[in-house]
Every structure is written in C-alpha cells, then in structure tokens.
C-alpha cells in the first residue's frame, strides 16, 4: 500500500470563504470581507484600489458566504460520512480579536471554534488549523498599515498564545500562514497592504514578508512551548515552472521564478535568508530591517512540516519575452500549449503535481502535506440538487495517482491530502460561487441568492471510496 496507515485524507476551507456571519457575536471587520465580486475585485485584493469599508453598488460575498457559522454541524456530519480523517479550516482573526490589538479575546469567537473543534473530534476527524488564511482585522490595516508594521507581529503572537493554550490537546496540526508567497501577488488580501503614492512597493512587500516570517517563527516557538506534541507547518502556493523553450534564458527564467516562490519556505524551513534573497535586496536597494534577534528567532524555530496548494504548473521565460499570459491562482503565466485548461483558463497538469512534490521534498527533506488541490468548475445540478461531476472525479483521480507515485516510487514522505473547497464556497480569486470545487453542492449564486441547502454530488461517494481504500481505489463506477 502506497500511503501510510494513518494518512490524513480530508478537505479544506477558509473562514472568509465559508463562515459568513461577518458581524455576528462580536466579530470585527477584516480585509477579506471587503473584496467584492466583479471587475474591481482584482484591484482591491492587489492593493491598487483602496476599499476600507463597504461601498454602495458592490456585493461582498464573504459577508454571508455559505453561512457555515450556522451550518457547521450539518457540514461536519457530511464530512464524517465521507470518512474524513482530517479537516483543514482557518480561524477568523477578527472573530477572536475583533480589532486585533486588544489584550483580551472575544469569548464568543473562541466558543464558536470550541464547538467546531469538538464536533470534529466527535467524529474522530483531526483538526488541521490555519491560523490566518489571508485575513487581518481592518483595524490593524487602518491604524498600523497591515503587515508592513512590525507591531502586527506582537498582535499575531497574542492570537497564537490564546489559541495554542485554548486548544491544547485538541489540535495538533497547525499552519501559520496560508500561501505566504501570495503576499507578493495580492498584497491587500495577503497582508492588508494598500500602497501610497510614490511608495517603493518592493521595499514595503519584502519588509511585510519579513514580519510574517518572524510571526511564523514566533508562532512555532510558542506552539512548541505550550505543547511539545504540536506540529507547526508553513504553506506556499506551489507549482514548478517549466522553461518555455530550451533557450538558456528561458531555463534561467524558470529557475529564478521557482526561487521567488520558494524564498519564504527557505526561511521557514531552513531558518535563514538564502544568499540569493540577500543579493536581491542589495541589488534592488532594499533596506529590510532584520535584527540579530530576528535571525536567532528564525534560526531556532523552523517548521516541522511543509504544506502547499497545487493547482497547476507555470511557465518561466527570459526577461526579453513578450509571451501572452494566462491566469492561474492569481499568478500570470505564459501559456503551455501541451496542457488542457479549466473553464477559468487554468492549466491542468497532473504529472506536474508529482514533479512539484518531488522538487519540494528534494529541497527540504521534511514531511509534506498537500492541503489544497482541486478543480473549479460550473456545476449544473438536477432537480434534486445532484451533480454528476465526472470531470471533478477524473481531475482528482489523475492527481492522486501522481501523488501516489511520488510516495510509492519516489519515496516522498507525505502526511496527508486535503482537497480544496470540499464543500462549495466563495472563490478567493474571483469571489464567485459558480466556480465550485466541492463534493457537496450549496444552493447559492454569485450574488447571494439561493436556499443554502446542501446536497451530495457524484464525487461525494467517489471520495468516500478513495478514503476507505486509503487511495487504492480511484475508479469511477
């Protein structure tokens, strides 16, 4: 059997894409609440368009999302029916600290996660908790400038102390930041950063990156102090770059594009800034404030395992390329003519999954955990809410087969696998509901219409079979 007996099969969501209840039980406003569906979303999440409060004429899908806040028992029961061994979810920072800089947490927010975690444990589902999945309280954005400000590290540490103590003995697996490298591509969503006129953007972004890396190391330190059983992981949006051609400039372009993504994980896994990053700062005149104490914290508090999302590979080119690009998980990449595309134009590359897994494992030699993988597609339910989503089954089967080969044939140490959006939720990239990933259909459209009723898709029983066979039976009957 390829996968270990205790392999953690499951699914993944994010608080801002599924919980809703944005102003319930004392929750404060967060940056992720303010990303509207529609053409202005990209400008908001990238920090080009300042939107610090709700504005007329926009629909904000995260306000209600799929209302998991009031449906979590029903949803977890469905996860248990599929046989989930783990469920990856995130905490809404502003539910626990509404403003972010308070000394004392909001008890109602903690109680919600008490109940959610206890519900998972009732079904023997291991909680896998992302401490922050793109969200930061808007008070910290308005008053401190988001992660550009070093003081935010202290506020994050305070959050960590509270949750590690509160959930000691109940939660073992933690992830510090979701897709930490996305900070460079979606600064407002990834770090609560909006740029001011004339600002050196690279200086701001890499200083904010340093603060998040410090916060991650501090979280790892606190987690291990509170409970030696705690396992803390980092997370990146992954996908190797293929050179567009064998032209040396394209090969070098692909190599350096990979390093741009791996830089964060290099620091979190190895405990120090790689020379190529320090040379990049020097070459570009960036004065990143890094103290000796910072270096010691990073060095002594590396992560226990490495998690990542995988949706597709990308293409690397030389500096002089004028290739047209396609969209892929908020990254722009030149088109790869050898790959099919999803309805949203994302390349589909199962073998690239195996390549990516191996490239990460070869580099770090630490246990891996795939925490996002899936197909966003338009689902057309019948009158009973049933979706015959063979396309999703085929996509996932093809990817799981490649992950299996990485483990069985290549010897990669893999802890688990959680599909993205195991229940339909709001898309982070576009804000749409029609871009669905789940095994469970939720009756909700892009603008909040629908009953929120849950129903099983064909993939529901297929994934149940995959888990029950520990990944041996991928057939679509």
UniProtKB/TrEMBL annotation:
Alphabetized Pfam families for the sequence: Glyco_hydro_1
Residues at the active site: 372
UniProt GO cellular component terms: cytosol
Signal recorded as keyword: no
Molecular function terms from GO: beta-glucosidase activity
Keywords, alphabetical: Glycosidase, Hydrolase
Family: Belongs to the glycosyl hydrolase 1 family.
Name assigned to this protein: 6-phospho-beta-glucosidase
Source organism per UniProt: Aerococcus kribbianus
Source taxonomy: Bacteria, Bacillati, Bacillota, Bacilli, Lactobacillales
């Amino acid at each position: 059997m390829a996968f270990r007996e205790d392999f953690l099969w499951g699914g993944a969501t994010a608080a801002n894409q599924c919980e809703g209840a944005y102003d319930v039980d004392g929750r404060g406003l967060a940056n992720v609440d303010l990303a509207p569906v529609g053409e202005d979303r990209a400008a908001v999440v990238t920090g080009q368009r300042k939107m610090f409060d709700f504005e007329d004429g926009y629909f904000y899908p995260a306000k209600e999302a799929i209302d998991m806040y009031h449906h979590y028992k029903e949803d977890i029961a469905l996860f248990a029916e599929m046989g989930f061994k783990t469920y990856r979810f995130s905490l809404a920072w502003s539910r626990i600290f509404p403003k972010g800089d308070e000394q004392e947490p909001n008890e109602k927010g903690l109680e919600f996660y008490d109940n959610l975690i206890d519900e998972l444990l009732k079904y023997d589902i291991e909680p896998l908790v992302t401490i922050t999945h793109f969200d930061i309280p808007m008070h910290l954005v308005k008053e401190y400038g988001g992660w550009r400000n070093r003081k935010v590290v202290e506020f994050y540490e305070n959050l960590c102390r509270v949750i590690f103590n509160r959930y000691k003995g109940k939660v073992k697996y933690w992830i510090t930041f979701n897709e930490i490298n996305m900070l460079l591509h979606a600064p407002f969503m990834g770090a609560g950063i909006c740029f001011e006129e004339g600002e050196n953007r690279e200086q701001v972004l890499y200083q904010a990156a340093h603060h998040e890396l410090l916060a991650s190391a501090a979280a790892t330190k606190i987690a291990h102090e509170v409970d030696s059983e705690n396992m803390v992981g980092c997370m990146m949006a992954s996908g190797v770059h293929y050179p567009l051609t064998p032209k040396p400039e394209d090969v070098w372009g692909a190599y350096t594009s990979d390093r741009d993504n791996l830089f964060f994980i290099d620091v979190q896994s190895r405990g120090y800034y790689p020379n190529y990053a320090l040379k990049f700062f020097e070459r570009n005149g960036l004065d990143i404030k890094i103290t000796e104490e910072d270096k010691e914290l990073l060095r002594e508090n590396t992560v226990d395992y490495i998690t990542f999302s995988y949706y597709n590979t990308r293409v690397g080119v030389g500096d002089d390329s004028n290739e047209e690009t396609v969209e892929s998980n908020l990254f722009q990449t030149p088109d790869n003519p050898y790959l099919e595309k999803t309805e949203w134009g994302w390349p589909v590359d199962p073998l690239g999954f195996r390549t990516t897994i191996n490239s990460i494992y070869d580099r770090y030699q630490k246990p891996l955990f795939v925490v996002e993988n899936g197909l966003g597609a338009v689902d057309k339910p019948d009158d009973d809410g049933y979706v015959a989503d063979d396309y999703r089954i085929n996509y996932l089967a093809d990817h799981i087969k490649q992950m299996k080969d990485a483990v069985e044939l290549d010897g990669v140490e893999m802890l688990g696998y959680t599909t993205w959006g195991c229940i339909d939720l709001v898309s982070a990239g576009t804000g749409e509901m029609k871009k669905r990933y789940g095994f469970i259909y939720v009756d909700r459209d892009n603008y909040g219409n629908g009953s929120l009723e849950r129903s099983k898709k064909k993939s529901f029983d297929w994934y149940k079979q995959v888990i029950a066979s520990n990944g041996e039976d991928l057939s679509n009957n």
